[in-house]
Amino acid sequence: MFNKFREEKMTWYTEISSFMITISIVIILAYSFLQSCPPTEAIKSSNSNLDPLFNYRQSPNFKNSAKCTAFSKSSIPTKICNPSLVHISMTLDTKFLRGSVAAIHSILQHCHCPENLFFHFISSDKSINLEPHLAKIFPLLSFKIYYFNPGIVQNKISSSVREALEHPLNYARNYLADLLEPCVERVIYLDSDIILVDDISNLWGTSLGSTTVGSPQYCHANFTNYFTPKFWSHKRFYRTFHGRRPCYFNTGVMVMDLTKWRKYRYTKKLEKWMKIQRVHRIYELGSLPPFLLVFAGKIAPIHQKWNQHGLGGDNLSGSCRNIHAGPVSLLHWSGGGKPWLRLDTGRSCPLDELWARYDLHDQK
Q1: Which of 311, 304, 270 lies closest to 287, judged by CA?
Q2: Pathway it acts in (predicted)?
Q3: What are the pLDDT digits (tens) for 329-358?
Q4: SS3 of the chain: helix, strand, coil, percent, to 5
Q5: How many other C-beta atoms are found inside a 10 Å radius of the C-beta of residue 252?
């Protein structure tokens, strides 16, 4: 009986030992497998396409009025030529994408009929397809992305007071008449660092009369400051303003008649001044002065509420600034300080909190 008990005990030990060996092998194999695979979070991150760059919450689908026209889901080329649309153009750059998304969000929220809007986005980076990301953030947004070849202006750009002003995409607005379809006769151009608190359709309805460009202008500004002493000392340069009263205007908000633009070949006129700048250094501020040289004193003045600019401070320090006295329809963080950067670093300005209401970027 004792021998039988000992045999059963040995059998039990053998089975246990075999089981433990099997478990050990499984653990070793599993450990090796886990070592060769990234953890769950790493897999999620690697498949998220530059996350957190594209980590945004989805915008609400704004239905602001039951009386708005419901356009059929026609193809983009057909829809673009619909004469009832309000056309808006903005540049798309990954560095300023957060600003662009907030700007679009504010436009949709305050537009009486967001269904009537069509966005023309200009990008100079072929390596990143921004279309699916925008479609995910704004599921009902009507838009098209156009490629702007940086080589078109690469040899025409001169150095500026701030490196960001030298980016080729800043000059894309010069070429909107060529980039957009010929059936697009008018467009509102907007910078990426703006927020609207009014219906953009009211800006769209601005009468340009016989002019090609409409923009808020500021005649109290010292216009001479936008050009170097060399410009004002040479008659061949300053005589361009003969017969007109030039006032400063900010090119971050413009209503543009593309039909007239194409007819009078304004792109060539802007390029002419860019070439002169490369040789004679007649200004310091990137893409703005050529517009002043061609259009200042010859624009349709728009109420200044449509461009409360300068909220980003000056081009170097980016200090806090307040809005000007009077009504406000559009806030513009032109200058060196961008609200999303100041908010992230804990050094925000009071007005940056207003911008934050439209920020869809998810920090989590």
Answers
A1: 270
A2: Glycan metabolism; pectin biosynthesis
A3: 999 999 999 999 999 999 999 999 999 999
A4: 45, 15, 45
A5: 20
Q: Are 332 and 252 in contact (CB under 8 A)?
A: yes
CB 169 within 8 A of CB 89: no
Positive/negative CA dihedral, 275, 278, 282, 287: positive
Pairing of strands 117-123, 86-91: parallel
CB contact burial 10-24 (16+ within 10 A = b; e otherwise): eeeeeeeeeeeeeee
Question: Which pLDDT value is given to residue 42?
Answer: 32
Q: Looking up tokens 């006129």, which residue turns up? A: 269
pLDDT (0 to 100) of residue 161? 57
| CATH numeric code, 72-357 | 3.90.550.10
What is the Cα–Cα distance from 176 to 305, expressed in whole angstroms? 25
Is the separation of the CB atoms in 111 and 197 below 8 Å?
no
How many Cβ atoms from other residues are within 10 Å of residue 299's Cβ?
23
pLDDT tens-digit profile of 143-201? 999 999 999 998 888 776 556 667 899 999 999 999 999 999 999 999 999 999 999 99
pTM: 0.84
Residues 270, 280: Cα–Cα separation, whole Å: 15
